[in-house]
Amino acid sequence: MGRYVLRRLLQLVPVFIGTTFLIYWLVWSLPGDRFAGKCGERPCEPAYIAKMTEKFNLDDPLIVQYGKYMLNLLQGDFGITSKEVSVGELIANAYPNTLRLAVVALLIEAVIGLAAGILTGLRGRGFLDNLVLVSTLFLISLPVFVTGFVLQIVLGFELHWIKTTVSASPAPWGHLIAPGFVLGSLSMAYVTRLTRTSIAENKRADFVRTAVAKGLPQRRVVGVHLLRNSAIPVVTFLGTDLGALMGGAIVTEGIFDIKGIGNLVYDGILGKDGAAVTGVVTLLVIVYLISNLLVDLLYAVLDPRIRYD
Amino acid sequence: MSANTTKPAPGRTGPVPGAPLLEVDDLFVEFRTRDGVAKVLNGVSYRVEAGETLAVLGESGSGKSVTAQTIMGILDMPPGVITGGEIRFHGENLLRASTNRRREVRGSGIAMIFQDALSALNPVFTVGFQIEEQLRVRRGMSRKDARKRAIELLDLVKIPNPKGRVRQYPHEFSGGMRQRAMIAMSLALDPEMLIADEPTTALDVTVQAQIMDLLKEIQVERHMGLILITHDLGVVAEVADRIAVMYAGRIVEQSDAISLYRRPGHPYTQALLDSLPRLDLKGTELNTIKGLPPSLINIPSGCPFHPRCPRVQDVCKTEVPAQHRPAPGRLSACHFAEELLSGE
């Protein structure tokens, strides 16, 4: 196990360098004058250009720029934006909002998705099963921004049940329920279907029959033997989804005006602010890599048949 | 069905003193599927006393496993429907018993061993856990005591290094060891009756013999009733006291093991015996039973075996042969059982 973890950690290094370099290269080699529009209506002062060129090492070849950027990053320095604001500070302000949103979304998809999946998986064909299948297909077919705008208009503008925008930072948990649902809706549908299939498949498994033949109470047969085995694919999905939720928050944060990192990236791209974009995306890469590693390790705990050496 | 089975007083529940350990009485089961109604069991009756081994023989689809599953109450319903008959354990009709009572009987009254131990054991729990959970849930034992007992049980079924093995997962066991673990698990609650559903089919020949020996040894030691479901006549000869041969959801012959081998009382049994490979007939072609097992949705008229029977007469095509006693201690459902037995 220890060797496996070490190997996986080492594998993360090239993936990390590869992805971040790609991002850096994409962002910093955008065509066009880097300083156009940065200083209002006028062209930028030569002094400002010189300062920024020095700050971002713009005279160096790209690979050297990237190297210097990474060295700073590893020391916790995310650099500054073209408006000389600390990117680290921006992230520190925005990240808790995104994290909260992702947690709400994950909770919603786990609780509702698992419950609906377990219920329909156990019961089999019937009205409830059809209802769940149709509504999950509905959610899967709808793009997130449609779900978002519909909820915002219906629940917010028409019924006044929710706040249409969550501009406050840090965002209150209560205000994040509707955005969380929007963000998690697609995955919730997948979790439901995954759980349903998994349960229905294992329900007839030999080991479940054995558990019944051992005279265990129905509660235990389902709760221990059936659920434990059916949870393996679902937990894997939920784990990898946490990373995806952070990155996928851009649309949802845009709709509900949540001051999260999605917002930050969006503004960064519009303003051609390379430092902000690379900083946030690098952070997302790290979160994604770590959550994937955790899922792989968790997988070994859930399914002992996975051997790691 | 037969004269000497003890029927409990009508309406009575709970065990009846002096009643046989297990009686299956005129059991009918159907599978209602989209393709039609498959009559899987058509009046199956047998009984097993404590300390006795009954071998149930038959081809795939003859209903031997379905009978066992119905006894255990683990038949998939739907599609299975029990349409008639009784299963009496100590005289108590289990088919009328409450869900709780049935659960009580499982494991401690009647336990079961399955054919494929790898899929029958839960892959994500250790072998120890799977033995211990019965002791903890059903007997209220502490974790520590249950672990101790699990190690004893693994030792009892002759698994080497039980202390280490108890912590391993099913996939870390070899096929034979897995089946031993399965046996240990079935013994955890000291059942009075054990049903072994083709316990050796998935194993190597040498391991088969070891497992059969072990089962026999445990059965004798604990004076358990044993139902051994198999299609392997070779396995049966050594361990069975009595044999029931099933065909198309019926018992076509029942007899003590020795008499049955000496002189079968049903052409189907004869055909099964003839299809065994024999060393003295080396080089000759192996006898097979011509034709296929009957479709249970559309069971042939008269004797269900008649389309494949080498001795078929006109009467076999129209009249269902009644189960009768062609000789003392023998039951046969063939119109010509007497002639078969008298050596004609």
UniProtKB/TrEMBL annotation, chain A:
Family classification: Belongs to the binding-protein-dependent transport system permease family.
Annotated GO CC locations: plasma membrane
Membrane topology, as annotated: Multi-pass membrane protein
Protein name listed in UniProt: Oligopeptide transport system permease protein
Cross-referenced Pfam families: BPD_transp_1 (PF00528), BPD_transp_1_N (PF19300)
Main subcellular localisation: membrane
GO BP, sorted A to Z: transmembrane transport
Organism: Actinokineospora auranticolor
Transmembrane segments: 9-28, 99-119, 131-155, 175-194, 234-256, 276-302
Key words of the record: Cell membrane, Membrane, Transmembrane, Transmembrane helix, Transport
Signal peptide residue numbers: none
Automatic annotation (TrEMBL), chain B:
GO molecular function: ATP binding; ATP hydrolysis activity
Annotated ABC transporter domain residues: 22-273
Gene Ontology biological-process entries: peptide transport
One Pfam family linked to the record: ABC_tran
Listed SUPFAM superfamilies: P-loop containing nucleoside triphosphate hydrolases (SSF52540)
GO CC, alphabetical: plasma membrane
Transferase found in the keyword field: no
UniProt cross-references to Gene3D superfamilies, sorted A to Z: P-loop containing nucleotide triphosphate hydrolases
Main location: membrane
Record keywords: ATP-binding, Cell membrane, Membrane, Nucleotide-binding, Transport
Membrane topology, as annotated: Peripheral membrane protein
Localization annotation: Cell membrane
Keyword Cell membrane included in the entry's annotation: yes
NCBIfam families: oligo_HPY
Family: Belongs to the ABC transporter superfamily.
The protein's name: Oligopeptide transport system ATP-binding protein
